[in-house]
Design goal:
The chain is α+β, with helices and mostly antiparallel strands. The protein has 6 helices and 6 strands. Among the domains are: 66 residues, Alpha-Beta Plaits; 78 residues, Alpha-Beta Plaits.
Length: 218
């Protein structure tokens, strides 16, 4: 019995040693990385330039639109004229019609400069009537008060003829260009690519319009 006991004890000790020897060792904890030293990185995580692939993809610029062509055309007298031209363009990315204000000549004004008083203006008006010049008007208020208007003319020749006649009769008549604010329209067009457009033919019906190429990023 004593011999059997010792045999079982030896067998149990041997079995325990085998179990302990076959258990996997705990992974070693990495040592702290010194400050300022970059972490190790697998080659599969990097591209040929040495920059992490994810970071390089995020830094790629957006398409710049190379090859696009942008133009400003005008001025046109009406919005419909600008839109009609836009409909004739090819490879259009976008178009926009802008409205601006411009001063336009609408005729000539013949007048006698403002007098120092209402009485002096009326006395001159009586002299005009005595000379058989009936087409006049004494301005009684506003910026042109005591001025004598002698007619509005669309044609420069007729205005000059009127001034010459008045001066022959001793009146210091003057002529002034009349203007008013009128709308003008411009077409901004962006095309997919620069093309050999026949602008002369496209703008043949619009005497005042011209074309200029602009920066598409402007």
């Amino acid at each position: 019995m004593r011999v059997a006991f010792f045999v079982l004890l030896v067998i149990n000790l041997a079995l325990g040693a085998w179990v302990l020897a076959s258990r996997p060792a705990a992974p070693a904890q990495p040592s702290p990385r010194p400050e300022g030293v970059a972490p190790l990185q697998l080659l599969s995580e990097r591209d040929s330039g040495g920059t992490p692939r994810k970071q390089r993809q995020a830094a790629q610029p957006a398409p710049s639109g190379e090859g696009a062509a942008c133009y400003t055309v005008g001025p046109f007298e009406t919005d419909a004229d600008a839109r009609r031209l836009a409909g004739k363009l090819e490879n259009v990315r976008s178009t926009n019609v802008r409205r601006t204000q411009a001063q336009s000549e609408i005729g000539r004004w013949v007048y006698l400069p403002a007098f120092s008083s209402r009485e002096e203006a009326m006395a001159t008006a009586r002299k005009l009537a005595a000379a058989d010049l009936r087409d006049y008007y004494v301005v009684t208020s506003g910026d042109q008060e005591n001025t004598i208007s002698l007619g509005l003319y669309r044609d420069d020749t007729n205005a000059k003829r009127r001034v010459d006649r008045l001066r022959e009769l001793g009146f210091n008549a003057r002529v002034k260009v009349r203007t008013e604010a009128v709308p003008r329209y411009w077409l901004d067009a962006s095309l997919e690519r620069a093309a050999d457009l026949d602008w002369q033919a496209l703008l043949a019906a619009y005497e005042s319009a011209s074309v200029s190429q602009t920066d598409c990023r402007g």
